[in-house]
Amino acid sequence: MALPVRARQSDDIEFRPMPIGPGARIGHVYGLEDTGDAQALVMELVEGPTLADRIAEGPIPVDEALSIAKQVADALEAAHEHGVVHRDLKPANVKLRADGTVKVLDFGLAKVLEAVATTADVSQSPTITSPAVTRMGVILGTAAYLSPEQARGRQVDRRADIWAFGCVLFELLTGRRAFDAESIPDALVSILTAEPAWSALPPMTPSQIRTLLARCLQKETQKRLPHIGVAKLEIEDALGRCTVVPQRVPSNLRAPADASAS
């Protein structure tokens, strides 16, 4: 599939795909196509519902939520090892395949943002036609997952992804956003000043996962969990202490079977 990036400008984007193998839990980005008038990312088509679809279906058992979160952490760890920060992790950017595997999408947008970012003035930021992203601290439509440093328009590093991971994990476990509001300004205020509704976590949530969430959602970057690999290890340990229920995608959310299959 091709995702439009921006209208053609005089300067070219140099695009370098991440050197990550096909087995990674990341939607593959094949390259950047130039049509003359515009540029577009060519990305892997991943079948299945999004994590946002799954959350909307109703409560997710704790062990299933942790299994999904572990795979998301796997994807982030692989990207961070190659110096790539996603910047826009959210349930709508996570796909659940029928076999239970997870794919995180839109890492290609992170690479393009790095290539075109030339100014901190958001009024001069490049136009990206995906509804998900503009650049550096301004992500319209996904304000609930912004880190405090993004909300302030500051430079970000992998700790912004760790914050967003905490938001996604909280939503997986509770069915509600960690920081929600009726408008983008209200959401930003909540991110900067409020705490998630910790009481909304299911009673069966392991104590180490509660601690992990608190570390991921530290507003000061210096106090935040420094590496997503630590989150993956904590989740693996928590899963080892409970009976794991294999992830199942509800039948009404599964991608249609190939019509050619018999």
Provide a descriptive summary of the structure in words.
With 262 residues, the protein is an alpha+beta fold. It has a single domain (47-250), classed as Transferase(Phosphotransferase), domain 1, CATH 1.10.510.10. It is 35% helix and 9% strand. It has 8 helices and 5 strands; from the N terminus they run E-E-E-H-H-E-E-H-H-H-H-H-H. The strands form 2 sheets. It has a 3-stranded antiparallel sheet with strand order 1-3-2, with helices on one face. A two-stranded antiparallel ribbon has the order 4-5. Helix 2 runs antiparallel to helix 8. The longest helix has 20 residues, at 62-81. The radius of gyration is 18 Å and the shape is globular.
Task: List the main descriptive attributes of the protein structure presented here.
262 residues, alpha+beta, Transferase(Phosphotransferase), domain 1, two-stranded antiparallel ribbon, 8 helices, 5 strands
Write the layout of secondary structure elements.
Blueprint: E1 2-7, E2 29-34, E3 38-43, H1 51-57, H2 62-81, E4 94-96, E5 102-104, H3 107-116, H4 148-151, H5 158-174, H6 184-193, H7 207-216, H8 228-240
Antiparallel strand pairs: 1-3, 2-3, 4-5
Helix pairs in contact: 2-5, 2-8, 5-7, 7-8
